[in-house]
From TrEMBL:
Pfam entry (one): FAD_binding_3
Entry-linked InterPro entries: FAD-bd, FAD-dep_Monooxygenase_BioMet, FAD/NAD-bd_sf
Record keyword Oxidoreductase present: yes
GO terms, molecular function: FAD binding; salicylate 1-monooxygenase activity
Cofactor(s) the record lists: FAD
Organism of provenance: Actinomadura luteofluorescens
EC number: 1.14.13.1
Domain of life: Bacteria
Record keywords, A-Z: FAD, Flavoprotein, Monooxygenase, Oxidoreductase
Protein name, as recorded: Salicylate hydroxylase
Residues annotated as domain FAD-binding: 5-350
Amino acid sequence: MTNPDVLVVGGGIGGLGAAYALARRGLAVRVLEQAAAFGEVGAGIQLAPNCTRILDDYGLLDEAAALGVLPHAMIMRDAVDGSELTRLDLRDLERRYGHPYLVIHRSDLHTMLLRACERAGVHLRTSQSVVAYANTAEGACVTLADGRREEARVVIAADGLHSVARGLLSDDRPVSSAYVAYRGTTPTASGRGAEVDLSEVVVYVGPRCHFVHYGLRGGGLLNQVAVFESPKARAGEEDWGTPDELDAAFERTCDFVREGLPHMWRDRWWRMYDREPLMTWVDGNIALLGDAAHPPLQYIAQGAIMAIEDGWVLGEHLARRLAHDGTVDWPAVLAAYQAVRPEHCRRVLTASRAWGDLWHLDGTSRRNRNALLRERAIDDYSFVDWLYGPTALEPSEEPPMFTPVPLASKADPLTATCGVRRS
Ligand SMILES: Cc1cc2nc3c(=O)[nH]c(=O)nc-3n(C[C@H](O)[C@H](O)[C@H](O)COP(=O)(O)OP(=O)(O)OC[C@H]3O[C@@H](n4cnc5c(N)ncnc54)[C@H](O)[C@@H]3O)c2cc1C
């Protein structure tokens, strides 16, 4: 194969989404993945309407819905007493945004994107570890660990949290939140899995911890996630987030949450990092995408979605600047991408941190938060409109964010703010 039009480094959800978005427009795209096989580690992932809208545009929504679950409600509960704080009616939400809220196994989403890439003719290569990037007179090139070089008109770096390419634009480092996630799936035929209502996505928010559950694979699997702040991380110890800390972190939570802990995988856990927002993602003919550009804390469940949106935005601007003879005005495509995506993702990154702070409150602040959340009207979408509407292609299309409500409005002198409006 001669040089492709585009090299995509990283075959995660972001890289494959971008490869498909560009290949379906007729470009020759090659994906370079460092692992020996394409795959995703982990369990469930939530896809809000700003993502299912794109899957629909790709012709993949029916397949995704068949692989996943379309829940009816998203409910937030207090992890200590188990009481309901607020909810979203996901059928009403689908009517509002035109597309559903979907939960799906990561590996099913990833495999679906991989198959779409294969159908679109993407050249998929594994065991390709990229160690350096450079712009050239004709485009850009990457150097692989074995010393070989690959060239293309444009390189998209979708190489994740520890991105090598990000070093072209910033010397920042991943920021540890000192929080860690445990995950686990369990069959729903009997036991714990059979006790849980799979038509609901539920998050229990508690002091320095939270617990999430929802169904996967047409309801055949229950997905559970337990997240907590590690005291050992806060003390600066290397060995943090271990299973003994998991059990201690949830001691104060209600029976339902504690009974979920034995169902977590205990041989692996995910330490939670993000990075400070980066406002320049393009260096010549090299562009960052996905977690390489904007790794978030996962609290508003938008990390993979932002990555898929990035690819879709690139593909849409490509389509606008693709001449009949196949030439592409790449400087204009990359400039349009740069103009719209960093600001949106900056908002998601900062809102994710604030949302996590809100979830993990204790004492009077927790009680004030609960009072505010209980006051929210069920049809008040003001705090998700900025996320779930159509993905902006131009800066002028980016919707305004919600107005934060000070917790102090509930007679607490705390200065922290709450990510909900009072109804
Ligand atoms: C607990 C948890 C829950 C989450 N829940 C959600 C959710 O519900 N919804 C949501 O949208 N997001 C969620 N996220 C976030 C989401 O998982 C990530 O944002 C998303 O997977 C990032 O995809 P990516 O392709 O950009 O990066 P990655 O998944 O990190 O993929 C990067 C790829 O690049 C490859 N690579 C790395 N370096 C090189 C190299 N030098 N050469 C070649 N290849 C390389 C890697 O092997 C990997 O395959 C969650 C995250 C966590 C931790």
